[in-house]
């Protein structure tokens, strides 16, 4: 039996708050945020986009599922979609039925519906006037998400954003940019490790990612570090990872 939702939610908030006082890995933080949203909220997948160049150019940095990552990349390639609107306007965007949004996002909506998405709720990753990205929640069915879940999503996004930009001002923007660029580089290693593990075990990339996260959690290691060990071959024969 899994833990009660309230207990698990408390654990997630504590783990995010811990990053305020301890050394942490940005990529771990963002992947944990995306997967926690799917675990705790009435949504099917989640993804996170951030800007890492200080000029407003977004990149996908974490997602709960492979198909969500592809959908977010599609938004970026076509410069259209709710996640981009949230980042640019710094406010939430809600769509209960993507099949009815051809006027707002004609290219994105058609693509999303074709791939099984029917609703989307986005929340800005923002502290005061600084917006560094967007938390994006997708549903496979049309309809609203409970208001309490949306408030929880914004609270999770707020804590993650504070963790990332803590103690930083406009004078230290370069440091923030460098940190997010490092996170994106770490994501490359994770994606490569997912693909290698999936091929080795004959599983899909989502299942491979779950194996990586489970190993990192149970051994108290960073996700990026575990991915690097997979890439250099030192974990491929460990039963705790591949069994």
The number of domains is 2
What overall form do the CA principal axes indicate? globular
Strand order of the largest sheet: 2-1-5-4-3
How many distinct helices?
10
Give me the CATH fold name of the largest domain: Beta-Lactamase
User: Which structural class do you get from the secondary structure elements?
Assistant: alpha+beta
Low-confidence stretches: none
In CATH, the homologous superfamily of the largest domain goes by the name: GAF domain
- Approximate helicity band: 55-70%
User: What's the pLDDT, averaged over the residues?
Assistant: 82
Taking the sheet with the most strands, its summary is: 5 strands, antiparallel
Measured distance between first and last alpha carbons: 22 Å
Q: Report the sheet-strand fraction.
A: 5-15%
| Radius of gyration, taken over Cα atoms and rounded to an integer in Å | 18 Å
Quick description:
This protein has two domains: 5-166, Beta-Lactamase (2-Layer Sandwich), CATH 3.30.450; 188-242, Orthogonal Bundle (Arc Repressor Mutant, subunit A), CATH 1.10.10. It is built from ten helices and five strands, in the order ααββααβαββααααα. It has helices at residues 5-18, 26-40, 66-78, 82-89, 106-114, 147-165, 173-201, 205-219, 223-232, 239-242, and strands at residues 45-51, 58-63, 93-95, 119-127, 130-139.
Explain this structure.
With 243 residues, the chain is of the alpha+beta class. The chain is 56% helix and 14% strand. The chain has 10 helices and 5 strands. The protein has a 5-stranded antiparallel beta sheet with strand order 2-1-5-4-3, sandwiched between helices. A hairpin with a 2-residue loop joins strand 4 and strand 5.
């Amino acid at each position: 039996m899994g833990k009660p939702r309230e207990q698990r939610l408390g654990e997630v908030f504590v783990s995010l708050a811990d990053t305020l006082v301890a050394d942490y890995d940005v990529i771990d933080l963002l992947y944990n945020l995306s997967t926690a949203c799917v675990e705790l909220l009435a949504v099917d997948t989640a993804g996170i986009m951030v800007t890492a160049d200080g000029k407003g150019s977004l990149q996908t940095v974490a997602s709960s599922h492979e198909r969500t990552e592809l959908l977010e990349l599609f938004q970026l390639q076509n410069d259209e979609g709710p996640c981009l609107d949230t980042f640019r306007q710094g406010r939430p965007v809600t769509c209960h039925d993507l099949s009815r949004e051809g006027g707002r996002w004609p290219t994105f909506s058609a693509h999303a519906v074709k791939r099984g998405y029917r609703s989307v709720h986005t929340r800005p990753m923002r502290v005061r006037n600084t917006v560094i990205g967007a938390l994006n929640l997708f549903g496979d069915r049309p309809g609203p998400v409970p208001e309490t879940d949306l408030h929880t999503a914004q609270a999770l996004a707020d804590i993650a954003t504070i963790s990332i930009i803590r103690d930083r001002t406009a004078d230290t923007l370069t440091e923030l940019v460098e940190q997010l660029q490092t996170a994106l580089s770490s994501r490359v290693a994770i994606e490569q490790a997912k693909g290698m593990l999936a091929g080795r075990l004959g599983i899909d990339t989502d299942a491979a990612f779950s194996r990586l996260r489970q190993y990192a959690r149970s051994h108290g290691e960073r996700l990026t570090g575990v991915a690097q060990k997979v890439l250099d071959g030192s974990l491929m024969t460990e039963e705790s990872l591949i069994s």
